[in-house]
Amino acid sequence: MMRRLAWLLLVTAAPLLADGGAILLHKQSPPFVVTVFASPAPPRVGPIDLSVLVQSSDTLEPVLDADVRFEFAGPDSQVQVQATRSQSGNKLLYAASVHLNDSGNRRYSVSIRAPKSQPITVSGDITVAAGQPKLEAYWDYLMLPFLGLAILALHQWLRLRKLAAGY
């Protein structure tokens, strides 16, 4: 019985994302290797958490004393945010939160300045999906009580069937 429950949990478990979410960009631009992550995956209209891993291109050691900034260019607006390590759960990443109001393709750039290094800017594209309705976003959590009741009802039915059979 426990094996079946373990299989059920394993099969129905949602895929886990890393601390920074899905990888948007991985680029080597000396003197750095830059990896940009976004959460949720795919990015949707509303708040988006962005994380950046900055590594030295020579040793791949994380660079922990950089000034990291995001800039988003949209059809009607331009958004700039600074990413800091204090906003990140993983202290090797620089994190920022940005609120994007419209869906579609957007161009973004990440500017990195570190002591004893030349500043660089790397660019990429992000596709922002339409906002997700609240019910669709949380339906699995709303179904948990009903799933528990269904399991309880199944248990009681099997128990009664076993008693009726005289076991």
Give the class from helix and strand content and strand pairing.
Answer: alpha+beta
Q: What percent of residues are in strands?
A: 35-45%
Per the CATH scheme, the topology name of the largest domain is Immunoglobulin-like
Given this structure, which CATH class of the largest domain is correct?
Answer: Mainly Beta
Mean pLDDT: 85
- How much helix, percentage-wise, in residues? 25-40%
Classified in CATH, the superfamily of the largest domain is Periplasmic metal-binding protein Tp34-type
Query: What's the total count of β strands?
Result: 8
- The rounded distance between the terminal residues' Cα atoms is 18 Å
Largest sheet: 4 strands, antiparallel
Cα Rg: 23 Å
Low-confidence stretches: 13-18
Large-scale geometry = elongated
Q: What is the domain total for the residues?
A: 2
* CATH level-two architecture of the largest domain: Sandwich
| Strand arrangement, major sheet | 1-2-3-6
Q: Give the count of helical stretches.
A: 2
Q: What series of H and E elements makes up the topology?
A: HEEEEEEEEH
**Multimerization state:** single chain
